[in-house]
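ok so I'm stuck.
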Amino acid sequence: MDNHNRWRTIDIVVASVLGVAFGVIFWAWGLLWNGPADAIPLPGRAVLYGVWLVPAVLGALVVRKPGAAFYTLTLAALVSVALGTSWGWTIVVQGPLEAAAGELAFALFAYRNFRLPVALLAAALAGLAASIYDVFVWYPGTAWGSFRLPYILLTAASSLVVAGLGSVALTRALANTGVLDRFPAGRERAAV
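replied:
not stuck anymore, here's the structure
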C-alpha cells in the first residue's frame, strides 16, 4: 500500500467522529421517519431517505482513503443499533451493504477522484443498495409498479441530493472553516 492510501491516526479519529455523530443522527432520523414523517405515505416518504447515506459520501470526501466510505457508514449504522432502532439488528447487515455500494464508486476511480460526479455516483449506488434491500426485506409483498420502483427511484433521488450534493456542500463548508486543513479536502478547498 502506498502512502496515499495509508490511514493516519487523524483519519481514523475523524472518520470515527463522523460515524458516531451520524449514528446519533440516524437514531433521531429513525424517530422522525416513524413519527411525524409517517404522515407521508410510502413510497413517497423515501424522499427523506438520503440522510442515512451521508456518512458513506462524507467520510470518503473528507478522509480520501480506501475504506473511508465503508468505515464511516458502517460505524454510524452500528451506533444507531446500539442506541436502539426500530429496525433492530437488520441494520448490522444493511449498513455495511449500503456502505460497500458507496465505497464502490470511489474504488472505481482508484481513490484519486473525489469530485462532484463521483460523490453523486457514490450516493446513487448507496441509495440503490439501500432501497433494493428494503423492497426485498421490509416490503416483500408490494407491487413493483406502484411501490417498489417508485420507492427505489425516490430513494436514489434523495440520495443524490442529500447524500451526494449535501456531502459535497458539507465538505466545502468544513474546509472553509479550516478544520480540514490536515486533509486533502481542506488543502483543495476550491476543488471539492
